[in-house]
Queue: 2 jobs
Job 1
Amino acid sequence: MKILCSVGLRSGPELVARIAEILGTGHELLLAHVIDTEPRRELMGFLRGPSPEGPRVRKPLLGELEAAERKSGETILAEASEAALQAGFSYTTSLLQGEPGRKLVELAQQIQPKVVTLFPREDSEVGPTSGPASIGHTARFIIDHAPCAVLLLRK
Amino acid sequence: MLHGGIGIGIFVLTMAVVFVRPYKIPEAAAACGGAVLMIAGGFISPREALAALAGEWNIYLFFFGLMTVTAFAEKAGIFEGIAHLAAVWGRGNTRRLYLAIFGVGAIVTAFLSNDATALILTPIVYVLATQLRLPVLPFMYACTFVANGASFILPVSNPINILFSDAFGNALPAFLRYMLVPSVLCIAFNALAFLFIFRRELHRNYHQEDVPSFTPADRRFFNYTLVVLGALAAAYVAFSAFRLPLSLVALAAAIALSIGAIALRVFQWRDIRGRISWSLFPFITGMFIIIRAVEGPGITVAFGHWLLGIAGSHSFPAVLLSATGTALGANLINNVPMALVMISSLGKAGAGPGLVYASMLGADVGPSLTVVGSLSTIMWSLILRRKGLEVSSLAYFRLGLIVVPIIIVAGSFLIWLGV
């Protein structure tokens, strides 16, 4: 079974472990992490903003930010891959950029997985454990728009 | 009467162009255009304009010296170094790191101005948070807010303060008497409020081994820059205490850093030139002339007298009104022109220190209300939102709405107590 896994900043290994626990191993995982570009856009907007001082963004800055994000994304996927390998899954990885919910739904439409798996929010150890507020906006968007089954893994 | 009305019209038109930026007209061009119209309309003679500008030499040299020092500090890797120190000090605890970023931001702001924190430290902290795999937005907000919140620790913490200090001759003891306690309390309140607001994002810790190693590009220049910055900080305090021009300190530090960079063969003028915001100079030049021109019809004086009328004997409502009015004005027409309007109004009306410091507080903290202290961004955000796009500038605005009014009220109260 092809499973699309939405991997957060630190949740990769735990997500893989939960999939193994609930669905068993032997599935094909697509470990996907989306670099959220909104904060970077916000930062650049702030730095370039309509201030009297005018644009003060160093040219290499955008490249430095992107490089840091890419490196972090690769580390995140490497961690999840390691967990998948140890659990006995076959896997592929995908590092995307953009609005996480939309990008994951687009990916799901492309690869047609049997199921998308995700945690309710980036850090589900804090905040409400049930009710509407327990599900973050990325998870909510995927639940609403995914073209396949969605497995929401509560803690 | 009609002549005066036209002068006010030019002022309003200039501010509208700065605010709306039609056809992406640069703010500096708008300010200079307004100044030319004022001179052409006879609202200020060329000689008066030149005299007004010559009187502001301390501001020009201070801006230039400060931006040069900041550029060298950035090139030496000072900002990366202190961000790295904060990450090490955090010992894997995200909330501890968050407080450290507030502390680092306050120190950078205190001695290198709010711009250094907002424009240079913020992207470095963004990269650090990304490397530590932490949510970046709370850290970004911490930098941008502390840049404004800490900008009334010292007279050099915000160039706006120099404008006020030059105009009213405020010495360091008086500045500290009125501003130090409000400043420290405002930073503390801001940090605690954000720790609470972002408690979910800051809940999870980071791995200490993820902290990237830090090695400056040139260790000798890094150490040399640290020494110069230390001397700069001490000289700022000494010069402020004796009411000596702070531009001399900033310029001396810039020259010392230039000599060091040349001697150590790390000097590249192109690199430094690119880090200085040259358009600031025509902008403030235009604004100085425009504000001096509108003093003629007596509008700013009338505004100052109106404030004093409310003030009576330095009552708290007047102090609060001065701070709030300046803060709101800063978001409408940007804090530099708003500060100039207030300086003119309060100066001509002979206002006391309470109103002056309250106005400085409003000009310093006010821009935290919106992304760049301008309502234009908010209007832009609202338009996008109507089209179904969520824009995080609104999140910034929401944070500003929570923090700024409390800081303004509490800060005004403390200033009033100091009166």
Note: Chain B is about 75% helix and 0% strand.
Job 2
Amino acid sequence: MKSNFLSVFLSLAFTFIILTILIVVIGKDPLEVYSLIYTDVFTSGYGIGQTLFKATPLIFIACGLAVCFHASLFNIGAEGQLNAGSFVIALTALQLDSLPLVLAIAISAVAGFTAAGIVGLIPAIIKVKKGVSEVITTIMMNFVILALINYLMVDFFAVKSTLRTVSIGDKNMLGKASDIFPFFEGSSLNITFVASLVTAFLVYVLIYKSTFGYKLRAVGFNEVASKYIGIKVSKVVIASFFIGAGIASFAGLNFIFGYKGYYELGFSNNIGFTAIAVALLAKNNPIGIIFSSILFAALDYGGLAVNQLIPKEVMLVVQGLIILSILSSDSIVRNFYTKKGLV
Amino acid sequence: MEIIYSVFSFTFLAQVFRMMTPYYLGASGANFSERSGVINISIEGFMNMAAFSFAVFCIMTGSILLSLILAVIVNILFSILFSMFTVTLKINQIVTGVGFNLLIAGVTKFLMVFLFSSSSNTPRIFVGYELSDNITAFSIALIFISGYVLYRTKFGLRLRSAGENPWAAESLGIKVRQYKYAGVLISGVLSALGGIWLVSSQHNYSDGMIAGRGYIALAAMIIGKWKPVNIFFACLMFAAFEALEITLQISGAEIPTQIIQMLPYLITILVLIGFIGKTKPPAADGIPY
């Protein structure tokens, strides 16, 4: 536990130093940049609201990934899974506009969860039946699913000459947080953020406090040993892929019900890969994921805030640096502790 | 009817061979890396990095040869970093690959805006077809080169032993880690050429221009069962899909191109399931040593 905190601290410190050097190299004042990020992201209700809004899908997806990662399943397919789920969420919601909002959202969420879950099942079943590593199959599934959705959108569901579905209409949209708390005026923060926190808590319970979670971690820790104590490994693999992929689809709830009102191809913008970094930084702990999601969202929004000084894409560099530095500092810290005999 | 004519023409065939180039370079690179036991899923990122740096160096120096060398050097540096992560620090190869892809995507997008104030593409680069044709010729020669190196040289034997059974190899005095470094390095250099080919044939660098070619290269490597000749035919097939897609788009036929786009990936999954022959990766592929 202590070593976890140490490596997270080291990697963030390292990233911070590199970023500072980068800012100096391109001839800008780091203090000015940081103070701009601070005032824009943390001192205005709009900034805080936008940060939490951007954190919402990351929390959902990273929590879903955490379920897989705990079982040592490298699900690289979140991007495809969440798009399949979100696409189905939008299509379902369009059929349900006569129902009360809560019911419409619940049914859409179940439909999205199932659709994404099924997409996740394919690599899981191939792994279980044929012993094929899930890494390549999930990567390939991303492309297959995105091309399939592209086809369905262009030929059937998209509004002419766009890549988005018909809007579900204002009356079927969730209210903004600013309706109740004027503090968040102008930001798109909505109740799905609270739902993502609840999800994180439930996933935490699932992983650390339930029998299934115990089996999940046992399989992740030592597949052979868990087979011998009677855990049905293949069931665990299939279940964790279904649940993990399903949860990732909830990212679409935020976008469709809370923000735009429609599914749009490319809305996810590779967030399914960013979420891998988020889960990694949090050591796949759902509670930690809340914080790492907020950090990544703050970087994302902070990029917009400093765009006048340095290109906002600098934050993509920062996200990449975080994932690589957490990987290396993990390894270095672990070696250090092992050498000292502390682990 | 016209489509069928245009498919069975010499121009179409020539186009397929040209389009095969980045796939085969990426796939051969990935093959060298995996034969040494390191799964490199950041072929996509490596291609992207080299494509971008080649474009930047071309604009800065004006010399094609110098830019090519510099872009390859940039990729060598990234490959060394990748090896340090996966071989020296024994960090999970998949996660490292994802990390490199994210970092490189970030670095190129950032530098695009910083250097060219554009998030989409660089100014036009005047590279003749000579360079891309030469790279295509090299990639065809690579069938023989990589076959020779892997199966007929001491280096190739040792590289493969590092990927099949590193413990046995080490006990025979082979410096396994050095061979893994070499494998990753070769993947970096070859995928660099793939990226440079894209820039020189499209006459500029644009964001997202690799468009999954690095992953298709991995797919070709799997379908080709980690064998240079088979990989080449897999790449030809994927290149034929790509050429067909373009032909169909131009002809305006009623066949959805998205279906053709997903074919490489779908076929790969089917091959992995075992519908189309059995595939077996190097025994110690992906296991840190």
Note: Chain B touches chain A through 45 residues (CB under 8 Å).
